[in-house]
Amino acid sequence: MNIGLIAHDTKKKLMQNFCIAYKGILNKNQLFATGTTGQLIEEVTNLSVHKFLAGHLGGERQLCAEIEQNRVDLVIFLRESIDLNDHEPSSDNVCNLCDMYNIPLATNLATAELLVKSLERGDMEWREIYQ
Asked: What distance in Å separates the CA atoms of residue 112 and residue 105, rounded to the nearest whole number?
């Protein structure tokens, strides 16, 4: 499965900790992330992450293009819901595209854990039908 990972600045440490905790599951999948988030994940986990540009430099748009091409099966976007800075990726595009293309999306830690656990159980195999 192809997993997209995005985190706003205030959530990057949380994303790192999440990836450490679920490294055993994540390493069996292809990971895609915006540049800074991907770099931070690689530093603490040694997972292989395909890194797009930094979110504010177009990485969010690159991930959105992958979603539109049906090349992403699951997205974890740990986002700050208030006080969004201008340089942060907008969650609107990613969330709207995930809704449009029926991509499971987690925007908080609780849902991210549920999706990763269901991935481990094989509950996401229905995504293969879409490909």
From this structure: 8
pTM: 0.90
pLDDT tens figures, 86-112:
555 566 889 999 999 999 999 999 999
**CA pair distance 2, 26, nearest whole angstrom:** 10
Q: Which domain holds residue 102?
A: 2-130
Q: Say which CATH number the domain at 108 has.
A: 3.40.50.1380
Q: What pLDDT is recorded for position 56?
A: 84
Token duo for residue 86: 């201008």
Total count of domains within the chain: 1
Which residues lie across from 32 on neighbouring strands?
Answer: 4, 50
Q: Hey, what are 39's tokens?
A: 């770099």
Section 54-75 average pLDDT: 93
Q: Which two tokens mark 72?
A: 């992403």
Q: Is the Cα torsion angle 33, 36, 38, 41 positive or negative in sign?
A: negative
**CB-neighbour burial class of residue 33 (10 A; exposed 0-12, middle 13-18, buried 19+):** buried
